[in-house]
Every structure is written in C-alpha cells, then in structure tokens.
Amino acid sequence: MKIISSSYVGPLHQLRTDALVVLIDNDTPLFTESKLDSMAKEVTKDVKDGILSSERVYSVPSGWKCGRVIFFCTSLQKNNASVEKIENTIAQSIAYCKSRGWLDVSILLNRDNENMPRFFDAAIMSQYSFVRYKSSSKKNTDKTLKINFIVEKKYSALLKERVEVVESVNLARNLVNEPANVADIDYMVNAAKKIAKDSKLKFTVLNKAELEKRGYNGLLTVGAGGHISPCMVTLEYIPAKPKNKDHICLLGKGIVFDSGGISIKPAADMWTMKGDMAGSAAVLCAMQAVVKRKPPVRISAIMCFAENLPDSKAARPGDIFTAANGKTVHVDNTDAEGRLVLSDGLFHAGKLGATHIADFATLTGACVVALGERIAGIMGNDDGWINKLLDASDATGERLWRLPLPQDYRTSLDTPVADINNVGGRWGGAINGGLFLQEFVPENTKWAHVDIAGPAFSQKKWGIYSEGATGFGVRLIYNLISN
Ligand code: BES
Ligand code: MN
Ligand code: ZN
Predict the structure, then answer these.
(1) 339: annotated active-site residue
(2) What residues are in contact with ligand 1 under a 6 Å CB criterion?
(3) 393-409 confidence digits (pLDDT tens)
(4) How far is the CA of 269 from the centre of ligand 2 (A)?
(5) Long-range contact list for 190-199, CB < 8 A, 24+ apart?
(6) Cα(456) to centroid(ligand 1), Å
(7) Which of 68, 265, 327, 374 is flagged as catalytic?
(8) CB under 8 Å to 356, separation ≥6 — which residues?
(9) Is 265 annotated as catalytic?
(10) Residue 37, helix vs strand vs coil
(11) What's the pLDDT tens digit per position in 13-72?
C-alpha cells in the first residue's frame, strides 16, 4: 500500500475525505466550527458519564463534504492525555478507518503544541509493516492510503520534514528486518554507498587488507568465520560554514548476523540476531535524514560490519589479539563480539578527529534485563554530552535511561593473560560492556554509548510500532543534531 501525507488548511465543511477523525481530550479546546463543537460536547459528556469509551462515528452534518466524522477519545477521564496515548490513538484511528476501507483519512490536529512532530511521526510510522515476503501482501499494492492532517498553515513545512525523517526511520527498519541471507555485509555496504551518493557525502570502505594494515583486529577477529570479509564504512559530512570545531562521530554496531560464534547461542530466538546491525542502520539512516537540514557541524558515521559465525577460521574462546590502540584482548566468549568491532570503530573515530562520539549498539541482553524491551541504556564519560542525548530522547519519545560507569567495576574485566577480558562476571553486563568500550575511547573525546539491544527490535507490535524493527535511534540522532 502506498501512503501519501498532506495537510489541509481550508474550512472543514468543504473538506472532501472518507473520514474526518477528531481527537478530543481535556486539553482540546472545543471547536470554532459550531456543528463540530456541539458533536464534541455530546461525545465529551457521554465519555464522562461512562457511556462511551473509545470512538464514535457520526453521519455527515448537512452541507459537509466528508463521508463521516469520527471522534476518538484519548483520556477524558484523566487530566491530560500523555503524548504516547495521543500517538497511539492516532495510529488506532487510522487502522480503524483502513479496516473499513476508508482510505482517505483526515485527522484534525487542532493542538498548537511542541509535540506536533510526534503526532505526524505516529501517523506515518504506524503504517509501516514488513510484508514483502508475504505472497498475500501483493494484492494490496495498488491501493493508496491518504493521510491528511488538518493543521494550521505554519505546520506544512514541519509535515514535509517529518515525512522525510520517517522515510529514513522506515529505511532503517527495512535494513534490520531483511534477513541475513539478503542483508549481508555487501548489501549493507551498498546501502551506505547509495545514501552517500544521493546525499553527496564522502564514502570510504576499509576492506580486509586495509583493516589488516591498520591493525583493526577486533573487526577481523569477529568477522573471521563469515564468508564475506568484515569491513568498516565511513560517511563524512563537512558543512560549508561550520559554527565551531566540533566533529560528531556516530558509530554503529553492524553485526549482520550474530550466532554467537563458537560460543554459540541457544536456538530459541536466535533468528532475531539478523537485527544485530540495528546500530549501524540507525546511524546510517539518521545521517541520511540529518544532512538534508545542512547542519553547521561536522558529522561522520562509522559502521563496523561483520558476521559472527562458527567456522574453522572463526575466533575461539581463549584467543588473544592486539587491538588498534595496542591493548591486548582476551576473547573469553565469542558472543561478546559487539564490543570487539566497536573497539576499532572508537579508535577510528579518534583518527578522524572526533570531538564527540555517540555509539549505537545492540550490545547486551543484560541491558534488556535491566530496562526492558522499550528503553535503551546510555553510559558515557561526559555529563553534558549524555544530557544532550537525554534531551533528544525526551523530545522524540525514544526512551533512554542512564546507567553508571563505576570505575571500580573495571576489575571484573581483568584477566591474568591479557590487558582486558571481553566479558565480566554474571552481574552488571550492560555496564561491563560500557566499561570495555571506554578502554578504546580516544583521549579527550566526549563519548556516549547507547545500548539499544531492547528497543531496536520487538517480536510483538506495540504502540505505533508493528512487530519487528523499530528504527530506534534515527529520530533521536536527528533531533540531537538538528537542534
Ligand atoms: N547481540 C547480542 C546482544 C543482544 C541480546 C541484542 C538480545 C539483542 C537482544 C550481543 O552480541 C551478545 O550476544 N551479548 C552477550 C554478551 C555476553 C556474552 C557477555 C549477551 O548479552 O548475552
Ligand atoms: Mn553476541
Ligand atoms: Zn551481538
């Protein structure tokens, strides 16, 4: 199904649409259009009296050109509808119309508030599904869904912007949802190359020989078992008029499939590890979205691609290698591979001259145990930089929660045979991952590590998300840099 989004600023009675969706809650001022106002009052009363709980369909007021008017109540009983509740109601209202074949939907968003970007996102993002391998999905392809937002004129530019951002979010979701037999290392490199070309960014790929020359042994060790060699891809954006000397480096974990390697994972849910490149997809697609705004700051994206498979050439538990910064690493568990590929990415960010690094990685199951499937963990070495990410999180609804990096916990990564072990003990696994990465952060560089193992991928649908990849991180990074 094709989706078109547009805005409408004319009078309501002249609007031609299958369904006019009206969202109401305590905050919604009643309407200047008197017919709508009296309907809204009636609905409000019925909800307060407990007669009505979710939606009510009205026939067309005489003289109006729309097919029907549908009221959706968000939270009339409470004081305020939370932003999430409104997002979900928007998604629900479109699904409701679609299921009845009303494919031209107009949503009245008469709330002048800072969350408008999220309402636009919710409407468009909730229409995503990954069904290209479903034979039954072929039937619907010629249909078009039109989502029309009834907003003040000043929002039409914002709507255009959000449509572009959501395109990037959905591209990230496609990359993550594609199975590893399709989205392999070459596929990811080509996706990055295409974005670089279309967005006029400098594109570099370090292949196996170049990784060897640079001593990028983390990537080489992890990727040794895959039939496609590991590589590191860089996209660079240099602004015409930089406003300062900052150089933001976005770093993404790009394990196209994580079987665990020789320390192989259990079979249950292993298939979800096709999404272990969600960090690199987020970074790549955020880059695509953000450079459209031509921000006055230097930005690079680094993606570390490898496939973690068992093989006669694969790394073994007990192997020791020397990382790019000279530290020796003991591979206690080949399933703790993300931190190994990121060690080279962090080092490379230093080579590029990064002043600020933000890495995005599906790094630890422990982070999911700690924060659940919908909240990412954030750690780092600089309060100001971490707070910037937390602010972007608040604005976008992509939730982050800060975890500490207590330096006395570093002893859990001690090993008698090398400078650092790649796993800690049983406890605090997300923090151990962060502490490992910290050893490879270039000097005098502000660094934040975002562990997205939970929110990157969801086996069930929730809120505005269909099951599968969420594109988590794209909107967060976009907000971080474009503000
Ligand atoms: N890619 C996984 C982490 C993961 C788990 C992502 C669940 C998404 C959902 C990572 O490479 C991994 O295997 N981590 C290990 C680390 C352990 C061996 C210290 C883990 O979490 O079990
Ligand atoms: Mn792993
Ligand atoms: Zn992994």
Answers:
(1) yes
(2) 258, 276, 333, 335-338, 362-366, 368, 423, 429, 453
(3) 999 999 999 999 999 99
(4) 13
(5) 191/284, 192/233, 192/235, 192/284, 192/303, 195/235, 195/284, 195/285, 195/287, 195/288, 196/235, 198/288, 199/235, 199/237, 199/287, 199/288, 199/291, 199/292
(6) 13
(7) 265
(8) 246, 247, 248, 249, 385, 445, 446, 447
(9) yes
(10) helix
(11) 999 999 999 988 766 667 878 888 888 888 888 887 888 777 888 888 889 999 999 999
pLDDT, tens only, 209-256 = 999 999 999 999 999 999 999 999 999 999 999 999 999 999 999 999
Query: Of the ligands numbered here, which is closest to the C-alpha atom of 422?
Result: 1
Task: Report CA(225)–ligand 1 centroid distance (Å).
Answer: 18
Count CB neighbours of 387 within 10 A: 14
Q: Check 274, 298, 339, 475 and give the catalytic one.
A: 339
- Supply the residue whose CA is at minimum distance from atom 17 of ligand 1: 336
Q: Of 126, 153, 151, 131, which is closest to residue 141 (Cα–Cα)?
A: 131
pTM beyond 0.90, yes or no: yes
- State whether residue 383 is helix, strand or coil: helix
Residue 304 tokens, joined? 């570390």
Identify the segments of the chain with pLDDT beneath 50: none
Asked whether the beta carbons of 53 and 3 are under 8 A apart, the reply is no
Q: Which residues pair with residue 149 across a beta bridge?
A: 7, 107
Distance 455 CA to ligand 2 centre (A): 16
Report the sign of the C-alpha dihedral through residues 98, 101, 106, 107, in that order: negative
Residue type for position 2 = K
The Cα-based distances of 239 to 201, 243, 248, 290, 300 in angstroms read 11, 9, 12, 12, 11
Triad 169, 174, 180: Cα angle to 5°: 140
Q: With CA atoms as reference, report the closest residue to 447 among 462, 456, 437.
A: 437
Residue 382: φ, ψ to 5°: -145, 115
∠27-32-35 over CA atoms, to 5°?
105
Q: Which of 221, 222, 259, 335 to mutate to test the pocket of ligand 1 (most atoms within 8 A of CB)?
A: 335
What pLDDT is recorded for position 478? Answer: 98
Q: Looking at ligand 1, which atom is closest to the CA of residue 258?
A: 1
Neighbours of ion ligand 2 (CB under 5 A): 258, 335, 337
